Amino acid sequence: MSIRPDKWIRERALEGMITPFEDGLVRDGVISYGLSSFGYDLRAAPEWRIFVNAFNTVVDPKHFDTRSLVEQTGETCIIPPNSFALTRSIEYLRIPEDTMVIALGKSSYARCFSGETRVALVDGTSPSLAEMAERHLAGEMFWGYSIGENGKLIVSLLDSPRLIGRDSLLALTLDDGSTIEATPDHDFMCRDGSWKEAGALRPGDSLMPLYRSVFRGYEMVHQPMAGFYEATHRLADDWNLRSGIYEDQTSTHRHHVDHDRRNNNPWNIVRMDASEHIRYHNADSYGGDFDPVEHGAAIKDALHIRSQDLAWRLERDRQQRLRAERFWHDPKYEAKRKELLQWHSERWTESEREFQRQRIARFWRNNTEARLAQGIRSRAAWATSPESRRQNQVIAAFRGTQGRVNHKVVGVRELKGEHEVYCLTVPEAGNFALEAGVFVRNCGIVANVTPLEPGWEGHVTLELSNTTPLPAKVYANEGIVQLVFFQGERPETTYRDRKGKYQGQKGVTLPKL
User: Is residue 451 part of a domain?
Assistant: First the structure.
């Protein structure tokens, strides 16, 4: 089967395939509709049935509860967050017996990118949207980065990457040299958390950045509002907790099932008992060629780097204090503590304990000046040593202060012609990060239409799903979906031949048994 161009569509439409028919693409002041190069854009009728789950209804296509559908007429329709609405096409279609028709959502509602646009995933890869769409059809799931409540960076499920249709694109160039190809109406998150359409961005605009670093083999991401780096596998663990995969438990560690520290897909993160986790990795890591001196030096360097962060030191001290308090008050050690206290009270007389206290006090008084002078000399020597310079470089790289750009827009230009465009859905947050390191809004409206079979005719019933956490507006008498026509051989049995139950439907038609 081959896709048919505008000339073929016009000829068939004038023979009655599309009524009423608009010979050309109407754009001025509306979401485009009519004949395009390789398709036809249908309009939505001003008839709406909006799903409002006031009766706590389960959506069952075999036993659909119509009480949850609120009927409405008007030039616009507001679809509630994570809900849907039904409408119909203004056009009445009569599909030729050798033609199959597929409906694609309008990019004006979807907000799209070119198929080559790469998405940042938490498993360390960055596939293109076109590649993700193919893998999604095979059942694969994807997780990426989003800005959640209160500006916190989270791990989120990136659902239903898909081809939307064809549209015009802008090319946005960032200050790191990367280019993003997006539809002019696609929203980009600015550094202050506000949103701007791609067509409204100007050189110098600063976008919300995704900063990632690798530390000891683990990916760390910068929390843009809090200002510190956090391990990505902890954010994946948070996703598991939010999704009820497992419960939060004390004295547990987060473990990478496949031992790949960069693979932070939530299914690769599990909780293990802390002691068991340490023994597990010790058995795996400490072989015959294990060098304890080198290992200790690496730990010392890592702790020195982390200790430069005041917030980390304060949190470490708090955690240590809590552990000490839990240990001290643990009933399991109460008998042992009493035994040790009794032993000390019997070992030393009061005069001997006083002698020891005075000896220690004299030692500290006599050595205070010497210790201070030695400390000053040691710090001065350390500050000029090669080791200090090396560690400062490591600290700077870890914090992302060297060579880091703030993802400012440096150029915006229009690309010639129309291009295949793709997008995806992020149910939890409504936004996701591109590999270029900026955050963008996800698809807003998903249009679901059953393929139109050879020999079918009627008004097209459209299901419009709002996949965002915000209300979404759609417009009547303007473009809503794009039809693509595929012509081949006439099938042995057409939809008309088998007298399909949706043949000749008018108005909004609900599921039939």
Answer: yes
When pLDDT is averaged across residues 398-403 and rounded to a whole number, the result is 47
**DSSP β-bridge partners for residue 466:** 445
DSSP-derived secondary structure for 450-488? --B-TT-EEEEEEEEEE-SSS-EEEETTSEEEEEEEEE-
Distance, CA of 38 to CA of 78 (rounded, Å)? 30
Strands, E assignment, 29-83: 33-36, 39-43, 47-51, 69-73, 76-79
Which contiguous run of DSSP H or E holds residue 88? strand 84-94
pLDDT at position 368: 63
Is residue 483 domain-shared with residue 391, that is, in the same domain? Answer: no
**Angle at alpha carbon of residue 237, lines to 233 and 238, rounded to 5°:** 120
Q: Examine the pLDDT at 145 and tell me if it is beyond 90.
A: yes
φ/ψ of 101, rounded to 5, equals -120, 130
Q: Is residue 379 part of a domain?
A: no
Query: Tokens 């008309």 correspond to what residue?
Result: 496
- In the Cβ-directed half-sphere of 452, how many Cα atoms lie within 13 Å? 31
Dist CA 165 CA 148 (whole Å): 29
Q: Which two tokens stand for residue 354?
A: 């006083």
Instruction: Indicate the burial class of 463 (C-beta count within 10 angstroms; 0-12, 13-18, 19 or more).
Output: middle
For tokens 């939307």, the residue is: 164
Q: Which two tokens stand for residue 21?
A: 């028919």
Q: Identify whether the C-beta of residue 86 lies closer than 8 Å to the C-beta of residue 47.
A: no
Residues 333 and 395 occupy one common structural domain: yes
Specify whether the backbone of 196 is left (phi greater than 0), alpha (psi in -120 to 50) or beta: beta
Q: Can you give the residue range of the structural domain that contains 334?
A: 295-341+387-403
Rounded to whole angstroms, the Cα distance separating 470 from 421 reads 23
Average pLDDT estimate for 312-341: 81
